[in-house]
Write a structure and sequence with these properties.
The complex is a heterodimer of chains A (820) and B (217). Chain A has 820 residues and is of the alpha/beta class. Chain A is built from 31 helices and 26 strands. Classes of the chains: A alpha/beta (820), B alpha/beta (217).
Chain lengths: 820, 217
């Protein structure tokens, strides 16, 4: 190919002393031929140039005389990224290229943290390249006259698609794209994704079902990278804890890893863990002060930006972080990565490892720090995984009604819509391809009349139909509130943490602060703080002296071991049992497995272990499927429910990635339950739904759903109080819908989400099939085994009961009396 | 199933419908109806089910039918917020019972125009005293100093019961202190405020349509 555009681009590469990769050239070709598809490339591989250059080539070729002089050309390229932090880097990089070519284009961001004056300018004149998030794209679609702003659009890139695809944000992206494609059928659309198990499907999800003959292409950037995995081993595994998730015992062994010239990222799984590690590292090595920093999602944007920039410039050498740094700092030089505790999935581990040696061709180095003894088995499994590179799938979310409700109101707020043509458009997205006409009618009815209307006194009028049959929102207050709440990430009740003098440190969950009194100290943002007062959703603090004991723990959902990882874990356990491995990790953990054998058994692949024991809390049953928390959540509710059908009984349930526990104040008839085929697949869905009535999972799911669908209003930003009279907890909504409108689609969605996403019915079914081929071994044990102990100490519990409510109360009452 | 207790030689029936009946004076007492709450939300484009309002009125109707009270005493927060049209079903209900004396002890939410209350036939009081008993919207700050026995609402009291095996339950309750009793919110869809059981003389919870005495000192 040698057009004028190509010529300029090749020259630019030559001047830089670079040589385009073959796959980059392939991408240029495809995009210039207006093909669409998915590019499989990790961060730092040169994907930006692969996608951006053809847009420039096309621009030069189609404006051979004026490509360096034409201004205000309208939006040409829309770049959608899941993370605001990435948008900034990208803006800089694209602008740099444009400046090199001396093209009078504008590159701008349109994200939540862009000032409103810039946004207003964009409303009048769009830049040629706009970088945005799925949420901000929908906010653009919620503006009057949006079609003219997208008139010249020819290319769309959806970056980090693997991050979006398994979430409702991904569905939001699909919907936004369906609108843009309907306005402009010749769009070129490319996704960029890191390696996941289901790349082909990922491409199809992005492109929807309308691509017809033109199947999306898949291009792989073949930059191979070697990953070195080291496990930090405890010296004395018998003194190493059996449970826990902090891993601070190995601090002394982690410190030497930090001693090198380059920079280190220390990944933890929770924000609390990051805070604690930061604190402990600094205590152990005061000389690190000034070169070590903390980064997590609760810290203010300003602090995080500063950390990212300081890492970039080399001022900061060590950053203790959470998944907040999984993405972003695309071009920062990181030399080492430390992972504290189980990464729960192979893809996440590899991606984090990939943050080091961040140049094409360089090796990556990652240190894994187990937080308790059994994680050593996971360490062995991770090493295998890095060798064979089999990644997890990211499953797309199908037909979430809440996101659709929000989208319809978004369109009604701006230009309005006609249901018939919009139904077609939406049916062509992957997510809503199976949307039924009666579901569609229900949703239309929901936004127009607010569900069933009973009396003549009703005043519901959200979306109305004008004389041309177009559905619109006329009420400006409703429109304003809707624009403010666009998005699918439900916000928790968060309080800002501020110094008395004024600067903001970040945000913390309300329920944590509610446990504190004025004068109490707590550790946040790497500082010891004293609570001075709380006012208007703001916590005022000052620096405190002395030691502090409390670290905010955050309600963030606990991750579950992926099915890929749990399969590998079971395999390693088998190897440990057969002694067929030379793995250093398994050698190290051996004494613990010996104790397991002594107190109970170490199940081999043909055995399924159940341990029964008594404590002053009552009767404990521990089951060990090794399937990950999510599957255990479903399986525990299921077994509890099935046992409770034998006799009235109440359970509290706990679980971790290895197994689950049923605890009751009375003897649990497990023998009888096993005779009745406790693990049968028969009536699975029916029993699961039966078990859910009390398990409150659906109710918890409904929190997000009600917020996305606009039932729960989180309040005006900066002035939560003002919206207070329109606030009601999602739990109350759930209760009244259950009572008055059990067929409510949003309630049905809550149950579907529990079954499909949270409990993962398909995986659960597979696990039950596996167990049914195994021999159940029921062991009565006197002391908790190393497998059981970590579950026993877990405090996050579910409840399930078949006793009559009154009986339960009377029982509790008796216990209350006995206690006093 | 209800439960009748004695306070200062009068008989008080705690009703599982989250209301109270004063036998000697044939008075039905209810707090925090929060009528119009669903209408308030619906008017703002939030699709709360309309049935909430009707259910409250139906329950009130059922109680009046069963107990045949001469007086209805409402302990404030009768209507949830600004005026909306869900007031009318209540007004209609009131006119259907012309012989029932209706008294409202005003609460912080009771900010509608006076004429509306008048049209519905409500007598409005800041506080209402009858013999040795006083009826207010809010609990007294220092209940020990009370001379009369006070009945009030405002708080939406609830208790969290904990049992062995780390079980717990949240239920609405009548919260009895030495000189006052806080009534549960009568209205549906109003939420619970959990109270500490230690401060109470006695707690009566409502579970499965039955009033249960939980703690008696």
């Amino acid at each position: 190919m040698s057009t004028k555009g190509h010529h300029w681009i090749e020259n630019w590469f030559n001047q830089k002393g670079w040589q385009p990769f073959d796959w980059q050239r392939t991408m240029w070709l495809h995009i210039l031929e207006q093909r669409s598809g998915l590019l499989n490339a990790p961060t730092g591989s040169g994907k930006t140039l692969a996608l951006f250059m053809p847009v420039l080539i096309d621009w030069i070729n189609s404006h051979p005389d004026c490509w360096q002089s034409r201004k205000n050309n309208g939006l040409q390229l829309l770049w959608i990224t899941p993370l605001r932090a990435l948008a900034k880097d990208l803006e800089k990089n694209l602008q740099q290229v444009i400046d090199d070519f001396d093209i009078p284009w504008q590159v701008q961001r349109r994200t939540g943290d862009v000032s409103s004056s810039v946004k207003q300018k964009q409303t009048r004149q769009m830049p040629e390249v706009l970088i945005t998030t799925p949420e901000s794209l929908h906010i653009l679609l919620a503006q009057k006259k949006y079609p003219k702003r997208f008139r010249n659009l020819s290319s769309i890139v959806v970056d980090e698609w693997h991050e979006l695809i398994g979430s409702k944000r991904g569905v939001q992206a699909e919907l936004g794209l369906s609108r843009l494609k309907a306005m402009n059928p010749n769009l070129t659309l490319w996704a960029v994704s890191a390696t996941i198990g289901n790349l082909r499907e990922a491409a199809e999800v992005l492109h929807g079902t309308s691509s017809g003959q033109n199947q999306p292409l898949i291009v792989k950037a073949d930059n191979h990278k070697t990953i070195h995995v080291h496990t930090v081993l405890p010296d004395d595994v018998e003194a190493f804890p059996w449970s826990g998730h902090l891993g601070i015992n190995l601090l002394q062994k982690v410190l030497p890893i930090l001693d090198h010239d380059g920079s280190t990222l220390v990944f933890t799984n929770t924000r609390a863990q990051a805070e604690i590690w930061f604190q402990k590292m600094l205590e152990a090595r005061p000389d690190l002060a000034g070169t070590i920093a903390l980064h997590h999602g609760s810290l203010s944007r300003k602090i995080r930006n500063w950390v990212e920039e300081s890492l970039h410039s080399g001022v900061i050498k060590i950053v203790v972080c959470t998944s907040s740094l999984d993405l972003g700092v695309d071009f920062s030089p990181v030399d080492r990565v430390i992972q504290i505790g189980s990464p729960k999935g192979v893809a996440r581990f590899m991606q984090r490892a990939g943050r080091s040696g961040h140049r094409p061709g360089a090796d990556s180095s990652i240190w894994f720090v187990p937080t308790h003894a059994l994680e050593l088995i996971e360490a062995a499994a991770l090493k295998d995984a890095v060798d064979d590179q089999k990644m997890e799938d990211r499953n797309p979310i199908l037909k979430p009604f809440d996101v659709l409700v929000q989208y319809l109101v978004t369109l009604a707020v701006s230009e309005g819509f006609k249901p018939d043509s919009l139904f077609d458009e939406i049916k062509h997205t992957f997510s809503y391809q199976a949307l039924q006409p009666d579901e569609w009618d229900w949703i239309l009815d929901f936004i127009r009349s607010g569900g069933r209307s009973l009396t003549r006194y009703d005043e519901y009028n959200k979306v109305e139909i004008d004389e041309d049959g177009i559905w619109r929102v006329f009420d400006q207050k409703i429109a304003r509130r809707h624009r403010m709440t666009i998005g699918t990430i439900a916000s928790d009740s968060m309080l800002s943490v501020k110094y008395l003098k004024g600067s903001t440190l970040g945000r913390v969950e309300e329920w944590f602060i509610s446990q504190l009194n004025t004068g109490d100290t707590f550790w946040f943002a790497g500082r010891n703080l004293e609570l001075i007062k709380m006012k208007n959703m703001t916590v005022y603090v000052r620096r405190a002296k002395g030691a502090s004991s409390k670290v905010p723990s955050y309600m963030g959902g606990r991750m579950s071991l992926s099915s890929n990882m749990s399969e590998r874990l079971r395999k390693k356990l088998r190897e440990a049992n057969n002694d067929t491995t030379g793995s250093i990790e398994l050698e190290t953990v051996k004494p613990i497995l010996e104790i397991q054998k002594e107190r109970s058994i170490l199940p081999d692949s043909s055995q399924f272990l159940i341990e029964k024991s008594w404590s002053n809390e009552g009767c404990h049953l521990f089951f060990f499927p090794f399937e990950g928390r999510y599957v255990h959540e479903g399986m525990s509710a299921l077994t509890a429910y099935r046992i409770s059908k034998i006799a009235p009984i109440t359970f509290s349930i706990a679980m971790n990635d290895y197994g689950f526990e049923l605890l009751s104040d009375q003897d649990i008839p497990i023998g009888k339950a096993l005779e009745n085929n406790l693990f049968t697949e028969k009536n699975l869905v029916q029993d699961m739904l039966g078990s859910l009535n009390d398990a409150e999972l659906a109710r918890r799911r409904f929190r997000d759903i009600s917020q996305i669908a606009g039932l729960v209003f989180p309040g005006y930003p900066g002035n939560q109080k003002k919206g207070k009279h329109l606030q009601m907890s999602s739990g109350l909504f759930f209760d009244v819908f259950m009572e008055y409108e059990p067929g409510h689609l949003l309630i049905r969605q809550a149950y579907d989400e529990v079954l499909n996403n949270q409990l993962d019915e398909a995986r659960l079914r597979k696990a039950l099939q596996r167990i049914s081929r195994q021999d159940v071994v029921l062991k009565e044990v006197d002391r908790f085994s190393p497998f059981a102990f970590p579950i026993f100490v877990d405090r996050l519990r579910e409840r399930l009961s078949s006793e009559k409510l009154l009986d339960r109360i009377q029982k509790m009452q008796k216990q209350l009396e006995n206690a006093s | 199933m209800s439960l009748t207790i004695k306070i200062k030689n009068n008989h008080w029936t705690l009703l599982p419908e989250r209301a109270l009946f004063w036998k000697e004076k044939k008075t039905l007492i209810a707090g925090d109806l929060h009528l119009g709450k669903s209408g308030h939300f619906r008017k703002s484009g939030i699709a709360a089910p309309q049935q909430i309002n009707q259910t409250n009125l139906d329950r009130l109707e059922r109680l009046v039918h069963q107990l045949q009270p001469e007086r209805l005493l409402l302990l404030g927060d009768l209507f949830h917020s600004d005026y909306n049209r869900e007031w009318f079903p209540f007004e209609e209900w009131c006119t259907k019972h012309p012989d029932l004396k209706k008294i409202l002890v005003a609460g912080n939410h009771d900010t509608l125009h006076e004429t509306l209350y008048r049209q519905a036939g409500l007598d409005i009081h800041e506080e209402f005293i009858d013999g040795a008993f006083e009826f207010n919207h809010k609990p007294a700050g220092s209940a020990d100093k009370l001379v009369n026995f006070r009945f009030c609402g405002h708080i939406h009291p609830g208790v969290k019961l904990k049992g062995k095996g780390r079980q717990s339950l949240r239920l609405p309750c009548f919260y009895r202190e030495k000189h006052q009793m806080i009534l549960p919110a009568f209205g549906e869809f109003t939420g619970l405020h959990l109270l500490d059981t230690d401060g109470a003389e006695c707690i009566y919870t409502i579970a499965n349509r039955k009033v249960v005495s939980l703690k008696e000192n």
